[in-house]
Amino acid sequence: MLDDLGTPVELNKPARRIVSLVPSITEAIALTCPQTLVGCTDWCVRPTDIQERAGHPVARVRGTKNPNREAVAALEPDLIVANREENRQFDVDALREAGLAVWVTSIDGAEDAVASLARLLREAIGLAEPDWLGQARAEWSAPAPEPVLTAIVPIWRDPWMCAGPATYIADLLHHCGVELVDLPDDGTRYPHVDLEVLRGLGADRIVLPDEPYHFTADDGPEAFPGADVRLVDGQRLAWYGPSMVGARQELIDAVR
If DSSP codes are grouped into helix, strand and coil, which group holds residue 205? Predict the structure, then answer.
């Protein structure tokens, strides 16, 4: 079988010992087949009762960008789940060189998320489609509301970084009737943009999520005097999987 990047993944039977290096996919596994989860990152915070659901200890293997590869290997997983954007190719290559099966997801939008997770669960874990996935598919296939608004979505400050057009965040907002304004292109998916430039772009909304930078009512809006600033749940905006259920209407209510 092949992962999302077309790389062969050798599995002789459905995976029953899984290490997830992607917080949102950890949530998907923990709410669908928790008994298979044996390891995850320190950033895997949902659900809050992962070990209770699994029925056994679930090891923490450091972060998404610096996983403890020795600890991962010691768990003897059938499968390691990674993501093209969240995890380093260096770590994926090293884990594969150690003889471990790694399935890399590539998710740039709502439709990508539904299709990728459905295939992962079906082909690699041997499961029927869970209810939450069908709900997510139905919700995110609805027409976008009108009129279309424009937005800037900072994801970090000092230096200011913003979501670019080819990101999951941009696609989710597109489904909510919100398009990102054109930003100066620095060759990255999350360009660094000077604050004065951002202030002058004339966006209808400044959307501030609470992760990865924890924007709050007291930290962020003051940088955009006179602008229509909206605070949103970062997990609703950037996590794929069960967090997609209910997120579309919540985001529409928050940003429109």
Answer: strand
